[in-house]
């Protein structure tokens, strides 16, 4: 009896420490063994990135309340073919923007051995991208700015895919130009999306587009794993999404010089002569 008691006492601390069969279990070791070092990094990165995004994008008191999506808004979208097309189009812009923007930032570390310098340059190129958008939005319009940004970034990403590995400087320049283009879009898309919707529904539909767009930022950290199959898969995906969104931008009217719509009827005629601002 004394031997059994002493044996149970000696096994107690090991169990409390999380041991199995008297062998301590390390979660990091389990993840590395099952997923590999790269898979462990991607899993932890996904958890860290997605948790705050999901919590901020889906607050329970907003999503599950009766006032979260008013019936009048759903009815207005369903009855207006113009508004329905916009509600189906703007979230795709946002998904592409966040997917390419964060995807290029995350994949920058694999450009060459100087991953810290690459990441700094990828972040620094956003500054001229932001200011370029500010300078041209009121000169050439919203549609040309955003469409050019999407297509320019897409062309750079596709060109990067087929640039030889030994041309490291050229690859870096093309990569940075791709980030420059999508940075222009990120600055402009808030303004363009807001101007397409009437005042009554503007905040709700802008928030909806932005919320759906977080799908892109959640999936972007997973793209480096695809490089194990082919190194150019992430940039080809960025290019394909950019071309799709660039074409979809052309389906919406230009809002430069128009009155900000207050009613649904005013939003439906954006781009027509009656929607132009009186000078």
From TrEMBL:
Keywords: Membrane, Transmembrane, Transmembrane helix. It holds the Pfam family MFS_1. It is a multi-pass membrane protein. The keyword Transmembrane applies. Gene3D superfamilies: MFS general substrate transporter like domains (1.20.1250.20). It comes from the Eukaryota. The chain crosses the membrane at residues 46-70, 82-104, 116-137, 144-160, 172-193, 205-223, 229-250. This is Major facilitator superfamily (MFS) profile domain-containing protein. One of its GO terms (molecular function) is transmembrane transporter activity. The keyword S-adenosyl-L-methionine does not apply. It is found in: Membrane. GO terms for cellular component: membrane. It comes from Arctia plantaginis. SUPFAM superfamilies: MFS general substrate transporter. Residues 45-279 form the Major facilitator superfamily (MFS) profile domain.
């Amino acid at each position: 009896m004394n031997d059994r008691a002493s044996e149970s006492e000696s096994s107690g601390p090991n169990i409390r420490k999380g041991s199995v069969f008297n062998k301590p279990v390390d979660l990091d070791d389990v993840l590395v063994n099952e997923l590999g070092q790269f898979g462990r990094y991607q899993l932890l990165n996904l958890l860290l990135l997605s948790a705050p995004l999901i919590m901020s994008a889906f607050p329970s008191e907003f999503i599950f309340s009766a006032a979260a999506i008013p019936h009048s808004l759903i009815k207005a979208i369903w009855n207006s073919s113009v508004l329905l097309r916009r509600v189906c189009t703007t979230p795709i812009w946002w998904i592409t923007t966040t997917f390419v923007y964060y995807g290029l930032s995350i994949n920058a570390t694999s450009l060459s051995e100087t991953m810290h310098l690459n990441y700094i340059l990828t972040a620094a190129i956003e500054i001229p991208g932001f200011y370029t958008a500010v300078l041209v939005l009121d000169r050439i319009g919203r549609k040309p700015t955003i469409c050019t940004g999407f297509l320019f970034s897409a062309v750079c990403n596709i060109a990067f895919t087929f640039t030889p590995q030994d041309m490291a400087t050229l690859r870096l320049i093309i990569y940075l130009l791709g980030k420059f283009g999508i940075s222009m879009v990120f600055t402009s898309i808030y303004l363009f999306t807001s101007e397409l919707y009437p005042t009554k529904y503007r905040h709700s539909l802008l928030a909806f587009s932005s919320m759906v767009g977080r799908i892109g930022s959640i999936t972007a950290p997973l793209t480096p794993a695809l490089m194990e199959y082919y190194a150019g898969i992430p940039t080809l995906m960025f290019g394909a999404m950019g071309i799709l969104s660039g074409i979809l931008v052309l389906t919406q009217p230009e809002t430069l010089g128009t009155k900000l719509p207050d009613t649904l009827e005013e939003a439906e005629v954006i781009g027509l002569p009656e929607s132009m601002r009186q000078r």
